[in-house]
């Protein structure tokens, strides 16, 4: 299992390197040449569904009911029930499409990394029972997770309100953590998975955080560059992902 997880971290580094040259072709970076498209809302539900189904399958099949295991599963599900079902319905995605191949690749990678994380929590790793609830790593990680979740949801809300129903163009977002960075939704998401990795304290959770960085850091850079090239009055003090730094 550890070899698989280490392989995943190597794959993340390869993905990070290739995304320096090639932005994933959805949203503002969409371009022809990536095969058939499907409605974006359907794509999001399909590709994120494993993140809801996999933990529920493990929860239903194993005997483990440790208090911290259940709390960590609830945190994960809170994020992913929103991302899979609520976010695609609330975001103004009507008329938007994404390549089927992107949804299929994300579906496949989610099955593997979600499976590794929940196999560790429910089968292979040491059980995170009630005693883990008083471990400093659980508290520090959970705090980081929930601060990240709040930033991610607030930023998603700001983006959602930029478009009136039927609108498809782009505007400069203001407010919340947009004061400091171009992609606070990605910053919040990365804080969540860093927090989760600390709260679980497992190699698969670390691999999931590394995987998320490998996807979101290059995309934040591409978004930031796109904003500065598209809007001449774009706030110059804003960074891509890390306030005051990068
Ligand atoms: P984006 O910020 O690119 O877009 C989110 C939504 O907001 C899209 O509907 C987009 O429209 C719209 N939007 C973005 N900027 C503007 C703007 N300036 N004006 C008007 N509308 C705008 O995020 P992603 O689609 O890449 O990701 C969505 C969520 O999924 C994020 O919260 C991200 O953290 C998460 N995610 C997590 C990954 C991981 O590895 N854990 C990987 C990828 C995403 P449009 O589609 O038309 O651009």
SSE inventory with pairings:
Layout (H helix, E strand, L loop, with lengths): L1 H18 L17 E3 H22 L5 H24 L6 E3 H25 L11 H25 L23 H17 L2 H28 L16
Antiparallel strand pairs: 1-2
Helix pairs in contact: 1-7, 2-3, 2-4, 3-5, 4-7, 5-6, 6-7
The structure holds NADPH dihydro-nicotinamide-adenine-dinucleotide phosphate (NDP).
What would you say this structure looks like, in words?
This protein has 246 residues and is mainly alpha-helical. It is built from seven helices and two strands. It has helices at 2-19, 40-61, 67-90, 100-124, 136-160, 184-200, 203-230, and strands at 37-39, 97-99. Strands 1-2 form a two-stranded antiparallel sheet. The mean pLDDT is 96. The site of NADPH dihydro-nicotinamide-adenine-dinucleotide phosphate has 20 residues, from helix 5, helix 6 and helix 7.
Brief descriptors of the model:
246 residues; mainly alpha; 2 strands; binds NADPH dihydro-nicotinamide-adenine-dinucleotide phosphate
Give the rounded overall mean pLDDT. Answer: 96
Low-confidence segments, given as residue ranges, are none
What is the subunit arrangement here? single chain
Q: Helix/strand/pairing class, anyone?
A: mainly alpha
What is the chain-wise order of helices and strands? HEHHEHHHH
Briefly characterize the structure:
With 246 residues, the protein is mostly helical.
